[in-house]
UniProtKB/TrEMBL annotation:
It comes from termite gut metagenome. One of its GO terms (molecular function) is transmembrane transporter activity. Keywords: Transport. One of its GO terms (biological process) is plasma membrane copper ion transport. This is Multidrug resistance protein MdtA. One of its GO terms (cellular component) is membrane. Residues 314-375 form the CzcB-like C-terminal circularly permuted SH3-like domain. It holds the Pfam family CzcB_C.
């Protein structure tokens, strides 16, 4: 009986060992297959490590714009700084026409305020002053001169006065009459009104509310602001290039993202200096252009003077360029949803486009707008080296 029990236990142990061996064998095969799959998947991912996936949906959401590279013309650029000025003859000085205390027509009369031709901007009153009201004085003088003139007309007919005396009386009457008319046209019960000589805006106020002013004293400057001047200060070393400059682009300091082109503003070259300023060693060059209403006179600007036309030049929009640690890159579109980061060597720029010296060729398709979104996609697609698949 003991022999039978012993034989049964031995058979059971053998069967259990076989089953355990088969289970371990299956686990080994499964682990081997898992490792194999991960290895080949990794090889597929690393086959083109510099490619960036960016779907059509992402491109549409980011407002991506693609441009195809084609050689073209590019003007040589001299980059400098300057200022926007009011054009000559485009502004007028308003002066006091009478002595007295000035009172502006409300708080609206301030620098930058719009005015219309003939609109009253101030009143000058001489009430309570020792010299009296000049308008009243002129009126009395005019009436006196008028009476003398009419009397002289009768006397000259009877040859009671000489022709010379009559001529003096007539000239005095006309002079006083002109002065009175000038006062009378602007006279109001509480003084003399000052009107705008043209439609524009108040560029500068020279006096304050309640100040005493004299005849001929400047009160304000009114500018039409239709024409402006662009004045660039060019270093002496570029003097030989000035004769070839007839155009320019500029960016105001208050709006550095907007590039204005003189070619689109009916701009023209007015003059350039024949010698540099002794104090600054810069040569002035001046353009005139139409104001679109968005450009502020007196503002400082970054200027791109454009001269000689260069042919067969590869250039890209400045918006296509990115910078990383002193190196510059663009993003190429290889396929509809595949992009690549490409290093380039940039040259001079005109504020809108930048010349590419190397790194691109004709036919390349680049991201012209939406570069930042593609750059983020490139960063997010990088798998850190510390990441492993442990099972």
């Amino acid at each position: 009986m003991k022999k039978h029990i012993y034989a049964f236990v031995m058979v059971a142990m053998c069967l259990s060992g076989c089953n355990g061996h088969e289970h371990n064998h299956d686990d080994d095969e499964q682990e081997h297959a898992h490792k194999y799959n991960h290895t080949h998947e990794g090889e597929g991912h690393d086959e083109h490590p510099d490619e960036i996936e960016f779907t059509k949906a992402q491109a549409e959401a980011a407002g991506l714009q693609i441009q195809t590279i084609a050689p073209g013309t590019f003007k040589q650029v001299i980059r400098t700084s300057g200022q926007i000025l009011a054009a000559q003859g485009d502004e007028t000085m308003v002066v006091a026409t009478s002595n007295g205390v000035i009172s502006f027509a409300g708080a609206a009369v301030a620098d930058g305020a719009a005015v219309r031709l003939g609109e009253s901007i101030a009143t000058i009153s001489a009430k309570n002053l020792l010299e009296g009201d000049p308008t009243e004085k002129v009126r009395i003088e005019y009436e006196t001169a008028l009476k003398e003139y009419r009397r002289a007309e009768g006397l000259i007919k009877d040859n009671i006065i000489s022709a010379k005396d009559f001529e003096q009386i007539r000239r005095r009457y006309e002079t006083v009459g002109t002065a009175y008319k000038a006062h009378a046209d602007n006279a109001i019960p509480n003084g003399v009104k000052i009107t705008a000589p043209l439609t524009g805006y108040i560029k500068n106020k020279w006096v304050n509310q309640g100040e005493y002013v004299s005849v001929g004293q400047p009160i304000a400057v009114i500018s039409q602001n239709k024409l402006l001047q662009l004045r660039a200060e060019v270093p002496e070393k570029y003097y030989s290039y000035l004769k070839g400059i007839h155009d320019a682009n500029f960016k105001p300091a208050y709006d550095s993202h907007t590039v204005y082109k003189l070619s689109e503003l009916n701009g023209r070259l007015l003059s350039f200096g024949k010698a540099s300023n002794v104090a600054s060693f810069y040569i002035p060059i001046t353009f005139e252009f139409n104001n679109t209403g968005e450009i502020i006179p007196g503002s400082f600007v970054e200027i791109y003077l454009l001269s000689t036309v260069q042919n067969n030049v590869i250039s890209v929009p400045i918006s296509a360029l990115t910078e990383e640690q002193g190196l510059y890159f663009v993003y190429l579109q290889l396929e509809d949803e595949v992009y690549k980061k490409q290093e380039v060597a940039p040259g001079e720029d005109d504020g809108e486009r930048v010349r590419i010296l190397s790194g691109l060729k004709s036919g390349d398709r680049i991201v012209a707008k939406g570069v930042y979104q593609v750059k983020l996609a490139a960063i997010s697609s990088i798998v850190p080296e510390a990441h492993t698949h442990s099972h």
